[in-house]
Amino acid sequence: MPTPGLDGYAEPWRKPEHDDLAELARTFFTKEVVPHAGRLERQGHPDREHYRRAGELGLLGLSVPEQYGGGGGDFTHEAVLLHEQTLAGEGSLGLAVHSGIVTGYIAEYGTEEQKQRWLPGLCSGELIGAIGMTEPDGGSDVQAIRTRAVRDGDDYLVTGAKTFITNGGLADLLVLAVKTDQSAKAHGISLLVCELRDDAPGFRRGRNLEKIGLHSNDTAELFFDDFRVPAGNLLGTENAGFIQLMQQLPQERLVIGVGAVAAMQRAVELATAYAKERTAFGKPLLGHQNTRMVLAECATRTRASRIFLDDCIVRHARGELDVATAAMAKLYLTEGQCEVVDRCLQIFGGYGYTTEYPIAKMYADARVQKIYGGTNEIMKELIARVL
Ligand SMILES: Cc1cc2nc3c(=O)[nH]c(=O)nc-3n(C[C@H](O)[C@H](O)[C@H](O)COP(=O)(O)OP(=O)(O)OC[C@H]3O[C@@H](n4cnc5c(N)ncnc54)[C@H](O)[C@@H]3O)c2cc1C
């Protein structure tokens, strides 16, 4: 179904191969995962089998070079996958982190040996990836992290705690931000790839956090107490972690933006369809001027957002997406998502507040977009720095 207000719009980067990928992804999400949504929400995490199936279909690691088991594509392919996942209303698989972020760190900073060791498993779905930056004492001030890694022979001994880790309940591979130089702030941070096994001494998974939305995706606490990580699992060089994080964060923010625009599209589609069917005062809701105005504004916001997102995707493909522009995208697109979804929910009246209608879940799921990946207040700081 074409999205009202987006008819005839074509992303400037789109090629026929993206249409084939979109079709494959749509079929997978709608036919193989969404039918299990209720059960996945009750269990509070996705099925491993769905990761494996996504891997089998070639949907994981789309931007990873083929020699490591990936699709040999680029960020546009990841964007198509994430867009289709949100449009399908699928929220259990943490693909934004697994494929959109974790594989990128390993492909970018890993040695040849590290890439051969981890990327094929991430691309096949045998391994589930996560990234651990946030700690119980704070997430915005990344430089102030306290989890430390102290060199002990051929290993690092890691001690500390991380929280709010997407995919944290199931993750096998964690890109972990640690302090390797306690006396330094930003220049004391390193990234270690931790191979997580529940029976590993010094490692413990905490609670799967209960959230107001995203019920079928695991968001967990992770604890480390002299947990041994081979020194060979260091990504890049010691104390370069902050720069690596800053280099990757624009893509992370774009990943969030892709989800935001897809959610806006879906909200406008659902609300328009509902407004055509539901009658009040003897005519369809769409026949009332206020409903038409609201949907016209939401469709306009969605189209403008789509164009801004595509401009960022094109810049990113050229390696020219700067920190401030990525922050603007994250800010504008997630604020837009929350506003559009809220206004579309209103069109459903009381039904919009019941979980029988997808718009209610979309409302709860949207809220976190303004918080993770750097809060929107931090985005404004980043933008203000270049003014
Ligand atoms: C569902 C979910 C999934 C997540 N997934 C991950 C993940 O996979 N990996 C990971 O590492 N983290 C993850 N996070 C954590 C997320 O990135 C952090 O919650 C976020 O960065 C904010 O950190 P905080 O919660 O510690 O808030 P704080 O840093 O304590 O901030 C609290 C408030 O103060 C504001 N604030 C802070 N500093 C400033 C300032 N300088 N100026 C103005 N206002 C300021 C913030 O904007 C916020 O409103 C996830 C969070 C959630 C809820």
How would you summarize this macromolecular structure in one to three sentences?
The chain is an alpha+beta fold and 387 residues long. Helix content is 48%, strand content 15%. The strands form three sheets. It has a four-stranded mixed beta sheet, with helices on one face.
Written description of the protein model:
The protein is α+β, with helices and mostly antiparallel strands and 387 residues long. It has 11 helices and 10 strands. It has helices at residues 16-33, 37-43, 48-56, 75-87, 95-109, 112-124, 241-277, 289-317, 323-347, 358-366, 376-384; strands at residues 129-132, 148-152, 155-166, 173-179, 189-195, 203-208, 219-230, 234-235, 279-280, 283-284. The strands form 3 sheets. Strands 1-4-5-8 form a 4-stranded mixed sheet, with helices on one face. Strands 2-3-7-6 form a 4-stranded antiparallel sheet, with no helix packed on it. Strand 9 (279-280) and strand 10 (283-284) form a beta hairpin. Helix 4 (75-87) packs antiparallel against helix 5 (95-109), helix 4 packs parallel to helix 7 (241-277) and helix 5 (95-109) packs antiparallel against helix 6 (112-124). The model has no long low-confidence stretch (mean pLDDT 97). The structure holds flavin-adenine dinucleotide.
